[in-house]
Amino acid sequence: MKRFIGFIKKEFYHIFRDKRSLFILFGMPIAQIMLFGFAITNEINNVDIAILDKSKDVTTQEIINKISSSKYFSNKQLIENEAEIASVFKKGKVKAVLIFENDFSKKLIKENKATIQIITDATDPNTANTISNFTNSILHNYQQEINKDIKIAYQIIPQTQMAYNAELKSVFMFVPGVMTIILMLVSAMMTSISITKEKELGTMEILLVSPLKPFQVIIGKVVPYIFLSVINAIVIIVLSIFIFKMPVQGSLIMLGAESILFIINALSLGILISTFSETQQTAMLVSFMGLLLPVMLLSGFIFPISSLPNILQIISTIIPATWYIIILKGIMLKGVGLAILWKETLILLGMTVFFMALSIKKYKIRLE
Amino acid sequence: MSIKIEHISKSFKDVSALKDISFEVKEGELFGLIGPDGAGKTTLFRILTTLLIADEGMATVAGYDAIKNYKDIRNHVGYMPGRFSLYQDLTVEENLEFFATIFGTTVEENYDLIKDIYIQIEPFKKRRSGKLSGGMKQKLALSCALIHKPKVLFLDEPTTGVDPVSRKEFWEMLKRLQQKGITILVSTPYMDETALCDRIALIQDGKILEVDTPQEIINHYPKKIYNIKADKMYELILALNAYEHNHSIYPFGEYVHYTDKRGDFNPTELIQFLEGKGLKNISIQPTETTIEDTFMELAR
After folding, report:
1. Were B155 and a residue from A120, A294, B13, B186 both cysteine, which residue would form a disulfide, CB within 3.0 to 4.6 Å?
2. Do A366 and B51 touch (CB under 8 A)?
3. Interface of chain B toward chain A, CB-CB under 8 angstroms
4. Which residues of chain B does A211 touch, with a Cβ-Cβ cutoff of 8 Å?
5. What confidence category does residue A44 fall into, taking pLDDT thresholds of 50, 70 and 90?
6. Which residues of A65-90 are buried (b: 16+ CB within 10 A; e: fewer)?
7. The domain containing residue B273 runs over which residues?
8. Contact A10 B90 (CB under 8 A)
9. What is the pLDDT of residues B77-134, one digit of tens each?
């Protein structure tokens, strides 16, 4: 155990004395989250929408006022009939149309429920999704307001419809994606580089001719990065909650546990890469081409998996990040728990065990 | 026997690095493995330190089989690779402590073993090891290889790239370590460093040429060597090459080491021959045989 602690201490010296790795570890997550974050917040400010109010009563007027006063929507255009919807979309003037059904107030009082249709232009899936989320939350707030002093709850039912990209199943949500990329980068790339560095500088030769066992070396390499990755994950979540008001619906504990699982998965991939890379450059290149690019392109981070060609969809299922992003979105956006995400968690766990076993087996106890 | 090597062969792809090597190193011996770059010294060291597996033959170190009991060997040997292989971003002190911990000991426990060596670099203990001079790096590497009190110490070209004064000091340190009961196998391409070894093995192209004490190896040299000097070195070598009775000609500092084919070599005759070639200030003196001469003769 003392050997092990000594080894971990040494790893921390390496990390904190190398400015380049420190920058990758802590500068990049913050820079990336800011970059993606602000690029996205700019888009959802002052989005133009149109409203088709079929009932024109007190309640609809109140809701329209609520929506107009929010900073997300502006320049509302009132339209008179359904035929106009297509034309305003096609002109590209508005990103969304809200439709209040006939006799909105009456239905709300009589049947305790009324429906609003939200049609969004989903050619830009991200914006479309954000608009519907924001509208929903405004409606939700309003509903709580009117229900405060009434015994029978009124229900306003929003019906969301994505126009022009109706198949849209997975949407681009930047926080889960950025978090995945950063954890992958820190964990896989940094460990593979730190192990190959020992090979390159010849220190691996001395470590081999010592009583340290392979798993001790591997765990010793991994532990500091688990620690640093967890800090990174916390930084990302805190930044997205406080700066970008990202909702985290589900349990933070589950989010943490799943993240640690994914971190260990990425670390074992990093070790695996280092078992066949001889130089730091190779390790970096393999991590980049073999891990980062697939994560960016095939995991559903940038392109929805459902819009990928079949062959790439199959490949995406063997990328651990795909499952982690599903889990993250589930916890953060939908607030679901293990009851729903057990399958994804199990797949991720299986992959982790597989890569870990493979990398310990592949770890060379000699020089060739 | 501390190290036993029996019929070891090793090839890398189609290059044969070691060809049927056998020798033994006795307990407590300071044994030198002498040969030029590419002779197979490092490969042999790596087989003995369990880093490589030989294609054929077997080796034991401190009584342990290099393949079956590799873990025991790793517990009981100290290894200093040819290249400086410590953590350059760690300080002198941190490196030493790290190696002590991974071998399950402490710096204090075996301090008297490394004291002689470490005391010289102690003033720089807060300096990162990458910023040390060549000689100091070697001293630190040796301290780290010794900190767990190994039974056998493997030093692969420890003096390469080190200045002559530090080299001399280094060998004296090895001699003192040997007195503490540690078996030392050291390799070097410098033939002049062998004097302090108990026994040496000459190695070239993966083959052992001879194993004996340095003095015996010199005694085996069959010929009388002459130092020849003249005003122009290059012309001198050309002229000697043209001389029909020459046996061997090797430039050796400011002299040329010359041996003759005949038993009754007459220097006067050679002087006349060289003068005929237009050389001046010629001197021919008998000289002592060195290990290098022996090596060159054996390697012919």
Report:
1. B186
2. yes
3. 46, 49-53, 70-71, 74-75, 77, 79, 81, 83-90, 94, 97-99, 101-104, 144
4. 71, 74-75, 102-104
5. low
6. eebeeeebbeeeeebeeeeebeebbe
7. 225-290
8. yes
9. 999 998 888 999 999 999 999 999 999 899 999 898 899 889 999 999 999 999 998 8
Minimal Cα distance from A210: which residue of B? B74
Beta carbons within 10 angstroms of residue A173's beta carbon: 20
Contact B21, B7 (CB under 8 A): yes
Pairing of strands A96-100, A47-53: parallel
The shortest CB-CB distance from B89 to any of A17, A205, A207 is to: A17
pLDDT of A165 reads 40
Residues B201 and B272 in one domain: no
Contact flag B51-A211 (C-beta cutoff 8 Å):
no
* Rounded Cα gap, residues A341 and A329, in angstroms: 10
Residue of A nearest to B84 (CA): A202
Say if residue B167 is in the same domain as residue B18: yes
CA B247 to chain centre: 27
Contacts of A59 (CB under 8 A, 6+ apart): A104, A105, A108, A114
**Contacts of residue B81 in chain A, CB cutoff 8 Å?**
202, 205-206
CATH annotation of A45-163: 3.40.1710.10
Q: Contacts of residue B70 in chain A, CB cutoff 8 Å?
A: 365
Cβ-Cβ pairs closer than 8 A, A with B, add up to 77
- Using the 8-state DSSP alphabet, how is residue A101 labeled? P
Would residue B144 count as lying in a domain? yes
Query: Are the beta carbons of A303 and A316 closer than 8 angstroms?
Result: no
- Domain count for chain B: 2
Of B52, B94, B99, the CB nearest to A367: B52
Whether residue B276 sits in one domain with residue B177:
no
Cα-trace Rg, chain A = 25
ipTM summary value = 0.84
Give CA–CA dist B119/B173, Å, rounded. 12
Task: Tell me which long-range contacts A248-252 makes (C-beta under 8 A, separation of at least 24).
Answer: A248/A331, A248/A332, A249/A331, A249/A332, A249/A333, A249/A334, A249/A335, A250/A330, A250/A331, A250/A332, A250/A334, A250/A335, A250/A336, A250/A337, A251/A331, A251/A337
Tell me if A210 and B103 make a contact (CB, 8 A cut-off).
Answer: yes
